[in-house]
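step 3/5: co-fold with pyridoxal-5'-phosphate
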Amino acid sequence: MKEINIHLSPKDMPRQWYNLAADLPTPMLPPLGKDGKPITPEKLAPVFPMNLIDQEMSRERWIDIPEEVLDLLCHWRPVPLRRATGLEAYLKTPARIYYKDESISPAGSHKTNSAIPQAWYNKQFGIKRLVTETGAGQWGTALALACNMIGLECKVYMVRVSFDQKPMRKILMQIWGGHCVSSPSEYTHAGREILKKDPNTPGSLGIAISEAIEEAVSDPSGTTRYALGSVLNHVLLHQTIIGLEAKKQLEIAGEKGPDVVIGCAGGGSNFAGISFPFVADKIHGKKIEIIPVESASCPKMTRGEFAYDFGDTAEMTPLLPMNTLGHQFVPAPVHAGGLRYHGMAPLVSQAVVEGLLAPRACDQLNAYKSAMIWAKTEGMICAPETSHAIAATIDEAIKAREEGKEKVILFSYSGHGLLDLMGYDKYLTGQLEGYTLPDEELKASMEVLKKLPKAKIHKTGKW
Ligand SMILES: *Cc1c(COP(=O)(O)O)cnc(C)c1O
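step 4/5: write tokens
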């Protein structure tokens, strides 16, 4: 019998997260306040608990995973590393393709890897309630699940179009005791102002972030905080459990290590999770091709700029040094909701600047074609975001065939698509179109960056 699933024993689960900030050959630029000065931890204290702010600012290479967090994560972790032998045979490639199956978490994606520790650290700090925003609903469901497991209240501002058109994840949040409301809402000043001006607005992630932060900072009891599902250093840190497990599992499979590592990238968290432990190896001399794959509708790494920019439309967040399209950017309504964010995590962005990563963009038609090949050869229905990683995996496997090389390809299977079947339906009925952001739109959305502080480009030139 072929070995398809490479399991890791719970006792071999990683005990520490890996922090790439300790090893980047060029230092990270600090986040800035509106006054252009580096932000202090005290400024963030009304928004996040201090223990997570410490993690956000940490330059320690290894950070212990609390025992209680491991006890919760081990309900479904370690997740299997699987070999995609069906896809390999179909492509007639000499490459061996492995993927980390993050779709088996109860919420269906990798996002639980950070939702659990975030809820735990908040609880430790005496917080009673977490507020967040969600687009298509994946982060909202993960946080609702985590709050339910840990004993916190959870409120989720869900972008109105998704709230109305994609009720499934809202139902999941409700099952786990989360309070999911349509954004903009009557609960906040920001929401009321927008509804007054435009009662029929479809809402946006930027508006939902503004509402969630406002609610968190205005609780007079001081026991409410905000939680973010991607982009920030501490979120990426929590996700490194994916790559750390994969490293041990590749060893069990008898592999020397991957030649190519691939992940789809929205805010950058699952990509960072699978790749950062291997980025460290690359910094220390290993030859590895590391590829974040973004949506061609939202191409911040391949066509955006490395600049200081706000994380949200309403300019409530600090200025972050990141690859961005400008915080006013309104992405086309492609199906991969998780890839429609204007910026890329500062840690990933700095690694791009340094030349350690080779980003590429994929349009949704190509992504769905790849998802269909995947479903037919491996049986599994992937999330629309994940299909972008699969498209790049297929390209790399074909390249290995053309070069006649036995490469090891590793990718992050960030989530399943069982609640996203409408996109597949559109594909099957020929209604799905490829979409690449036009140049004029790109130029216009980057105008806002001109009035913000410039981000210095630091790189060693080694890669
Ligand atoms: C949210 C999400 C993404 C994109 O977010 P990242 O922070 O870039 O990982 C990708 N895949 C799935 C399944 C998601 O839910």
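step 5/5: annotate
The pocket of pyridoxal-5'-phosphate is lined by residues 109, 111, 138, 230, 264-271, 338-339, 383, 385-386, 414-415 (CB under 6 Å).
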